[in-house]
Amino acid sequence: MNRKQRRADRKLSRDATPEEIFPGEHGPAQAEVARTMQTVLSVLRDAFGPNYDITLLVGERDVPPDQNRLPRFNYASTGSREDMLAVLDAFVLKNRQAGPKLDKINEAPPTESKQ
After folding, report:
1. Which of 49, 52, 53, 69 has the most CB atoms less than 10 A away?
2. How many CB atoms lie within 10 A of CB 101?
3. How many structural domains does the chain have?
4. Is 115 part of any domain?
5. Quick one: which of 81, 74, 71 has its CA closest to 32?
6. Measured between alpha carbons, how far is residue 93 from residues 4, 29, 45, 57 in Å?
7. Are the beta carbons of 31 and 46 closer than 8 angstroms?
8. Over the stretch 44-66, which tens digit does the pLDDT of each residue have?
9. Which residues span the domain enclosing 68?
């Protein structure tokens, strides 16, 4: 199977259901992860200044094999939850519409030469 066929057969995250991405429920962020997220938010807040709200999403890809638990996912934000959700909704809508176009940008052209 060549690269193009593998890409065509691969299910993209945007085509997955929430249940496929995070089956069942997810656990809380580990204390170390939460502290790191707060540190990152603090650095970004200082860098951007008070006119910007920052939202950080952190999702665990794989559970370590020695741990019997579900993947963890968390967010931290300097803005209100309602504002964060409104911005994320707009971001998702815009990127769903642009998704097929962006996929084609990364594909090799028929001539196999870069355009």
Report:
1. 53
2. 8
3. 1
4. no
5. 74
6. 27, 27, 26, 17
7. no
8. 999 999 999 999 988 887 778 88
9. 12-106
